[in-house]
Design goal:
heterodimer; A: 120 residues; mainly beta; seven-stranded mixed sheet; four-stranded antiparallel sheet; 11 strands; 0% helix; 51% strand; B: 112 residues; 47% strand
Chain lengths: 120, 112
């Protein structure tokens, strides 16, 4: 069964760090770019970051650039999102999603999300 | 950053009727636009990509033909021809022509 499973969410204080994981199964992990997308309470989806299938390219949304870092470990079929200098506005459900194109574009498979709450 | 604006924010339609959702980009994105459906407590689901191509879906059961996408440049439309009870959800469009990729704020499709 093809699936993505996020983990690592929790409640943290402003200014702290947290690492999210996205474990893939049922697919050839090294063939796919992986995105991170979040949905804050009461708001819409926000694209966060993407890492190329081979890890050579990474892009970030403006609101997280310089604070979040995406990486991948092919041996574990896992993508990570390292989040630092967390702010209250980073509170959201974080989804990882598989890229469904050959040129890194849209997302055709999503995980169920992990919740991050930044609060003092 | 390309700003993507969806309208209306909420659309009330009766089952069996047609729903038309709009998405506008602040600059041309060509055909590089996708539509997603999200139901409460669930992950988003890809419906349409490249503005008008229906997704296969995972598992590969296909997106129903009642969903169709159209448009190019800055103006796009998602049409659901005959609303089924399971179609009431929030719909998002996403541009992937320029970095950073951006989503619209969503249209909530509710039962009238």
């Amino acid at each position: 069964q093809v699936r993505l499973v996020e983990s690592g969410g929790g409640v943290v204080q402003p200014g702290s760090s947290l690492r999210l994981s996205c474990a893939a199964s049922g697919m050839t992990f090294s063939n796919y770019a992986i995105h991170w997308v979040r949905r804050a309470p009461g708001k819409g989806l926000e694209w966060v970051a993407v890492i190329w299938y081979d890890g050579t390219k990474k892009y970030y949304g403006d609101s997280v650039k310089g604070r979040f870092t995406v990486s991948r470990d092919t041996s574990k079929s896992t993508v990570y999102l390292q989040m630092s200098s967390l702010r209250q506005e980073d509170t959201a459900v974080y989804y990882c999603a598989r890229d469904g194109s050959i040129e890194v574009a849209f997302m055709d498979l999503w995980g169920n999300g992990t919740t991050v709450t930044v609060s003092s | 950053e390309i700003v993507v604006t969806q309208s209306p924010a909420t659309l009330s339609v009766s089952p069996g009727e047609r729903a038309t959702l709009s998405c506008r980009a602040s600059q041309s994105v060509g055909m590089k636009l996708a539509w997603y459906q999200q139901k409460p407590g669930q992950a988003p689901r890809l419906l349409i990509y490249d503005a008008s191509t229906r997704a296969i879906g995972i598992p590969a059961i296909g997106i129903p033909a009642r969903f169709s996408g159209s448009g190019s440049g800055t103006e796009f439309t998602l049409t659901i021809s005959s609303l089924q009870p399971e179609d009431f959800a929030v719909y998002y469009c996403q541009q992937y022509n320029n970095w950073p990729y951006t989503f619209g704020q969503g249209t909530k499709l509710e039962i009238k």
